[in-house]
């Protein structure tokens, strides 16, 4: 993909298996939106090859479209429609292609049963998003795109939404999620991709990423009412020594690897400050 | 079945949208109030007769107004729907479902048609009852009315779709609205066009609104009234020629421009438009 003379995306390779949740992270301007829109078939690429569900999105027909679900963040449409009416309407688009999800069942699944007869414009932000998700999955998609799905959710709605995503993955839906919420990414994703500088700079589970980035873990403990912090490259050995030395006197022990947030910040910072190539190589070596 | 499904879904969509408009008080007011105000004015013009005839200005204006309404609901309704619904993401949503774009455009057309028929009945039924000279004079005038309505929708709806596709900003609706209001003044809707300077008459006759008013007057007024029209005739042939030309132009432009709109719709495009809308407000 190219804007003007600058290549925006270079060799971005994403594969998602059935039932897998993949999160795409990256700073603004990294090409996240562009990538997703090319995959959704909403934007033409300038060069390269793209295949989604075995089809080039630029040539995707309605049959291909019926196998995808898309949930975007900028929707505030159909305000006059009632929840159930709108969902039933969108279910009818899929009927010629595949068996849509039974509407009442789906309304219960996304937790909108009480609001089935309410006008869409009266829903709260979180309810509205859940309706968007319901419309996105009413055709039982094989691949679902979720763009910042929980912006504006309260913690409870967020938790419910995360449960819903897990249930969808259990139904063998492949899910590609973008978010700025790293905590959410860590909770939801089987795999995390970080896109920066127009390429994928990291690909792995949150745990694997943090182990690759930080060689040191943070160990905290209390001893005789005093709190200690130590960075250890081999925390297991360090803790073993600690107990050998102080025995039962050690309390409140904590061992922490870098969080996804720290991993992410470090990776993205290095890419943006130009040290990216080295990090990337280290990474590729570690991946082998 | 698969090929026709979007048309069927679109038709259902149009009916549901129309029902929502009819059950939303503000929207209903938007449809009814202008017609009611105009009807009241026209009602008081019952006693004012057009010089040289026995027909009142009110009787003349009523059919003309129906012609005007065809332009309003056929064209402006579609322009408005297209610009507003591109900003709120309705179009983008249509793009994410199979057959969604076709169904969306069919839905808009069906909705406008329903609103048009409603506004037609709203003016026509009381009009025929209250105004002595406004009447159906046999099946011929029914047929002419029907033909004018159909030709009118053909001449205005595709142009509306093309204009709606050109403007992505609901604010630019005014760019379409104001000239249309101007057209009312020079299309002989509320006063015979022959009272205007010839060059203004010429401009008025380029656009469908004049001809739609003329067609409605031909359907509903006594034949003798043709005497005060341009050329002293209802000029059916010219009417069908002008409306037909607009239909052809609209049908050439609209699919092309709508395809362009559909192609360009994406999440980031809608987000950007909403950003701009926020700046307008703030």
From TrEMBL, chain B:
Claim: Lyase is one of the keywords in the record: no
Q: Which residues form the ABC transmembrane type-2 domain?
A: 26-261
Q: Which InterPro entries match?
A: ABC-2_transporter, ABC2_TM, ABC2_TM_bact-type, ABC_2_transport
Sequence intervals crossing the membrane: 28-45, 65-84, 104-130, 142-166, 173-193, 239-258
Annotated Gene Ontology cellular components are: ATP-binding cassette (ABC) transporter complex
Q: One GO MF term, please?
A: ABC-type transporter activity
Cellular location of this protein? Membrane
How is this protein positioned relative to the membrane? Answer: Multi-pass membrane protein
Alphabetized UniProt keyword annotations: Antibiotic resistance, Membrane, Transmembrane, Transmembrane helix
Give the UniProt record's GO annotations in the biological process aspect. response to antibiotic
**One Pfam short name:** ABC2_membrane_3
**What protein am I looking at?**
Transport permease protein
Q: What is the lineage of its organism?
A: Bacteria, Bacillati, Actinomycetota, Actinomycetes, Micromonosporales
């Amino acid at each position: 993909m190219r804007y003007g003379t600058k290549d925006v995306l270079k060799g971005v390779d994403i594969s998602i298996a059935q039932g897998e949740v993949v999160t795409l992270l990256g700073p603004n301007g990294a090409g996240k939106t562009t990538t997703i829109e090319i995959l959704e078939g909403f934007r033409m690429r300038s060069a390269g090859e793209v295949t989604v569900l075995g089809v080039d999105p630029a040539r995707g027909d309605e049959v291909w479209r019926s196998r995808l679900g898309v949930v975007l963040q900028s929707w505030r449409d159909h305000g006059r429609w009632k929840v159930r009416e709108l969902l039933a309407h969108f279910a009818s688009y899929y009927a010629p292609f595949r068996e849509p999800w039974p509407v009442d069942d789906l309304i219960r699944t996304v937790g909108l049963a009480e609001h089935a007869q309410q006008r869409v414009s009266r829903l709260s932000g979180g309810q509205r998003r859940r309706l968007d998700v319901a419309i996105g999955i009413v055709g039982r998609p094989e691949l679902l795109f979720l763009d910042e799905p929980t912006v504006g959710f309260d913690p409870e709605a967020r938790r419910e939404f995360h449960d819903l995503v897990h249930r969808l993955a259990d139904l063998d839906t492949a899910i590609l999620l973008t978010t700025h919420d790293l905590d959410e990414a860590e909770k939801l994703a089987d795999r995390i991709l970080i896109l920066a500088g127009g390429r994928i700079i990291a690909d792995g589970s949150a745990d694997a990423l943090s182990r690759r980035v930080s060689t040191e873990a943070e160990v905290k403990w209390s001893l005789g009412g005093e709190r200690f912090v130590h960075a250890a490259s081999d925390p297991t050995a360090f803790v073993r020594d600690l107990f050998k030395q102080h025995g039962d006197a050690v309390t409140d022990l904590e061992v922490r690897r870098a969080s996804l947030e720290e991993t992410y910040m470090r990776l993205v910072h290095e890419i943006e400050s130009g040290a990216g190539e080295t990090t990337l190589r280290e990474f590729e070596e570690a991946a082998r | 079945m698969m090929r026709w499904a979007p048309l069927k879904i679109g038709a259902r969509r149009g009916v549901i949208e129309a029902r929502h408009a009819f059950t939303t008080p503000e929207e209903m007011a938007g449809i009814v109030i202008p017609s009611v105000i105009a009807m009241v004015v026209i009602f008081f013009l019952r006693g004012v007769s057009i010089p040289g005839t026995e027909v009142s200005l009110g009787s003349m204006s009523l059919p003309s107004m129906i012609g005007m309404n065809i332009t309003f609901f056929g064209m402006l309704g579609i322009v408005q729907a297209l610009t507003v619904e591109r900003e709120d993401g309705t179009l983008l949503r249509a793009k994410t479902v199979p057959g969604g774009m076709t169904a969306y455009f069919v839905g808009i057309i069906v909705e406008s048609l329903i609103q048009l028929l409603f506004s037609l009945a709203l003016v026509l039924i009381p009009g025929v009852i209250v105004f002595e000279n406004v009447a159906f004079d046999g099946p011929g005038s029914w047929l002419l009315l029907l033909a004018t309505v159909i030709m009118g929708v053909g001449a205005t709806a595709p142009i509306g779709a093309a204009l709606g596709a050109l403007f992505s900003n609901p604010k630019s609706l005014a760019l379409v609205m104001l000239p249309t209001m101007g057209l009312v003044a020079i299309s002989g809707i509320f006063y015979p066009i022959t009272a205007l300077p010839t060059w203004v008459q010429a401009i008025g006759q380029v656009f469908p609104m004049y001809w739609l008013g003329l067609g409605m007057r031909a359907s509903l007024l006594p034949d003798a009234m043709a005497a005060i029209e341009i050329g002293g005739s209802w000029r059916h042939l010219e009417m069908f020629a002008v409306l037909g030309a607009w239909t052809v132009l609209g049908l050439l432009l609209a699919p092309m421009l709508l395809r362009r709109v559909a192609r360009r719709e994406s999440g980031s495009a809608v987000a950007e438009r909403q950003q701009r809308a926020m700046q307008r407000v703030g």
